[in-house]
Specification:
Growth Hormone, Chain: A, 274 residues, 12 helices, single chain, two-stranded antiparallel ribbon
Length: 274
């Protein structure tokens, strides 16, 4: 009896506190990743004007970031497969913050493109690693809650964060939108650095998973195609919506933040209904 009481004191209490707070820290990181996904969209018109380029040219930032994300996601999983999840999570969050910092201070459009590629390099590995870490660390009864919180951070960033940073880019400067992403990224990095244990954990990816996932059933391919079409249509509209609504106002209020907020709220409601 005495032995069990002693073994469950300070170290066990600290470990339990870390387990409880870890999903919140990962959710904050997912929130920052979600902001980064849409940060250019709300500030596209201002970026084009600042660098004296056409909106079509500025819109390439969205394409470059998306292509970089798609390319780096499988490559990073292969390159860093032998690293522990802690190291991968912190490293790529640092890269994500560095890329957005470079974007915020970019003196030329070319440097801004480099910043978007670096941030995509970091973002491409954060979400899968965060979900993997939550699945490993959380007790069986709380794994689903932790995963729901992480993906909820992405939804919350679209519902609340995107209209906010869009308003900031209009009211102040488009660079402040990137400052907001950097702020939330640093906050998530600080929390994760304090919560994650230093000893090495299992590698990020297991060879058995890779072998078992080579052949998917037809239903999975169908869901993949539907998701591809939905995301493609969403980003096709989102990419240039700031240009279309640049001078549109609802009374005395710019229309763009309100339209983005309404769209994000509808998206969040539909996901919740599913």
């Amino acid at each position: 009896m005495l032995k069990s009481i002693c073994t469950s004191s300070p170290s066990t209490t600290r470990r339990n506190r870390r387990v409880r707070l870890l999903p919140q820290a990962l959710t904050l990181g997912a929130f920052a990743i979600g902001l980064d996904t849409f940060v250019v969209i709300g500030a596209l018109h201002e970026i084009a004007g600042d660098f004296m380029i056409s909106p079509a040219t500025a819109g390439r930032l969205v394409s470059i970031s998306a292509l970089s994300y798609a390319a780096f996601a499988p490559l990073n999983a292969w390159w860093f497969r032998s690293w522990s999840t802690q190291r991968v999570l912190l490293l790529f969050l640092v890269c994500f913050i560095a890329g957005n910092s470079l974007s915020a201070f970019s003196p030329t459009f070319g440097i801004l493109i480099v910043g978007r590629i670096v941030s995509a390099f970091g973002a491409a590995m954060f979400t899968p690693t965060a979900t993997s870490l939550a699945a490993m660390r959380m007790p069986p009864g709380r794994k689903g809650v932790a995963l729901a919180l992480i993906f909820g951070g992405m939804t919350l960033s679209q519902a609340l964060g995107v209209p906010l940073i869009t308003w900031i880019s209009h009211a102040m400067n488009w660079r402040w939108a990137f400052y907001c992403v950097v702020f939330f990224g640093i906050l998530a990095l600080t929390l994760l650095f304090m919560l994650l244990e230093r000893p090495g954990a299992p590698p990020c990816s297991a060879p058995g998973v890779a072998r078992g996932s080579r052949r998917f059933p037809p239903a999975v391919w169908g869901l993949f195609c539907v998701t591809l079409l939905v995301v493609t249509s969403e980003f096709t509209v989102y990419a240039y919506i700031s240009v279309l609504l640049a001078n549109t106002r609802l009374g005395d209020v710019p229309a763009l933040p309100l339209v983005l907020m309404a769209s994000a709220r509808c998206s969040a409601i539909s996901r919740r209904g599913c």
